[in-house]
Structure formats: C-alpha cells, structure tokens
Amino acid sequence: MASLGSQTFRDFEIVIVDDGSTDPQTLRKLLALDGHATVIRQMNRGPAAARNTGIRRAKADIVFALDCDDTIEPDFLAETVALLQASPPDVGMVFCDLRLTGAESGLCSRYFNRFDLLFTNTLSSGLVMRRDAWLAAGGYDEAMRSGYEDWDFSLRLARAGYRGLRVAKPLYIYHIADDAAPSRSTDIDIKRLYGGLWRHIRERHAGSYTIAAMLQLWKSSRDGSGRVPLWKGLAACALARVLPDAAFNLMIARLHRGPRADAARLPGGPSSLFNPAAQSSTH
C-alpha cells in the first residue's frame, strides 16, 4: 500500500483480495484500509483465483496484479501504463526488470520470447496488461495452486497472439523469502516440485511442445531476444519426458546447488537448466 501510495501516476483504483486469511494482524490491517481500497474476502482458493477475482472486480481496461510481499518503485505505473497505452493492440502486456530483496539481492532482467517461454518464465509476475488480453487468455489457471501459474499464464497470453514489451529498469521489487518462512517459489525449491509442475504445463499446452511446434517457434522467434539454445530446450524436454519426476527434480536440485542457485528462487520453471535470470542476479 505504501508503494502504491507513492506512485507518480495517480489514476487507479486498488482492489485487495483476502484469500481466506486467518491471521489476526492481517485481518486488522484490512479493516483499517476501509475507504482506501476495495477489499474482497473469499474462501482460500490460491493465488490464481485471487488474481482472477480482483481483475473481474476491477473497472479499468488496464490491470496490474501486485503480490502482497512485493513492492514497486514510484515511476512503475507511470512508465508501464504509458507504454501500454501507446502500443498497438497485439501488445497485451508491459513488464520491467526485477530488483531482488529479502533473502537474496541483485538485479534480474526480463524479456519476451515465445520460444524461451516454453522452458522458463522470462516475464514477471508483475504484468501491466490489457483486460482484453486477460480475457482472451482465459485468466489464470486456478488449478495451479502449488506454483508456476504466472508461467502458465504467460504462455497462454503468447498463444492468444499477444506479445509483451519491456521497460528496461528494475521498477518491480521482488521479495525472496528465506527457508524459515518460505514463499511458494522457495517452497518449490525445497519440495522439488519442478518436474510435476512443468509436466502439468506441458500437458496443458501440448500443442506447443511437439518437436514441429518448438522448431517453428524457434524459427519465428529469432529476433535477437532469445537466450535458450534450441538444443538445450529440446534436450530439457526429452529429459523431462523420459525421466520420472523424482529423477528430474533431483537433477534440477543438484544444478541449483551451483554458483547460480539464486535463479532457482525466481518465478518460472526449472531455471537452472536455462534461466537467463542467472546471468544477472547476485547474492
């Protein structure tokens, strides 16, 4: 709320979705926000359902979901909204680079490439997007309660024909929790859920993961933005298909113990194999 209050762009409403919180301090804080935001309470249904609920209630044709442990710089809305409004209709979302805070620190660049999106979420959870794009993508998948719903949603935006534009500044501050009180991103790392979650995504987007489809996407995405080599993407898919989830998870966990393990905590997939975030993030 403080970071929203400091925005230089002021023409927005705030909708908060209380996804079944039972924490007394949280409930007291929400009561104190009466008149400053619209608060919607629902039974706990997970982050994807909470985002869908908030977007359905929002009145504007441009929407932005801000997770409760993240913040944004004062110019975030001013820069992203202006870019989206000035862009053609096929630009469905605008995003920016990330500044990591909490258990880890550093900068993480984000980008849009349809081929690379098959293997890791190169975008950000903090998408400023057209409401029409959210509708065309079918909203967030509410069945994905364990994680990677942002990655799945990015894939469906791309499949719906939308592309994203980047503001090359770390205006979104992404909080990484420690192992003592893990976030869902950290929990995926601890419980080694990569294999099952990526399998679910491949099943939901089966048409995009055939060899012919991946080759076509790779050819059409060679605009200089891609960072995942074709051979590495195909090899990762082959390994994920032939290895049991437990074996695939073990392989990823061993890679996570390397010098770039911080990238594993970022939103979006079995990142130690090919996550471009690892190129710029630091402890």
Can you walk me through this structure?
The chain is of the alpha+beta class and 283 residues long. The protein has one domain (2-7, 60-282). The chain has helices at 2-5, 24-32, 47-57, 76-85, 131-137, 149-159, 184-191, 194-204, 211-220, 230-242, 245-256, and strands spanning 15-19, 38-42, 62-64, 71-72, 91-102, 105-108, 128-130, 163-176, 281-282. The strands form two sheets. Strands 3, 4, 5, 6, 7, 8 and 9 form a seven-stranded mixed β-sheet that branches. Mean pLDDT is 86; it is low at 258-265 and 276-283.
The SSE string, one letter per element, is: HEHEHEEHEEEHHEHHHHHE
What is the radius of gyration? 18 Å
Structural class: alpha+beta
Secondary structure tally: strands: 9
Q: Mean pLDDT score, rounded?
A: 86
Domains, number: 1
In whole angstroms, the N-to-C terminal distance is 27 Å
The tally of helices reads: 11
Biggest sheet record: 7 strands, mixed
Low-confidence stretches: 258-265, 276-283
Strand fraction equals: 15-25%
What form results from the Cα inertia axes? globular
Fraction of helical residues: 25-40%
List the helices and strands and how they pair.
Layout lengths: L1 H4 L9 E5 L4 H9 L5 E5 L4 H11 L4 E3 L6 E2 L3 H10 L5 E12 L2 E4 L19 E3 H7 L11 H11 L3 E14 L7 H8 L2 H11 L6 H10 L9 H13 L2 H12 L24 E2 L1
Parallel strand pairs: 1-2, 5-8
Antiparallel strand pairs: 3-7, 4-8, 5-6, 5-7, 6-9
Helix pairs in contact: 5-6, 8-11
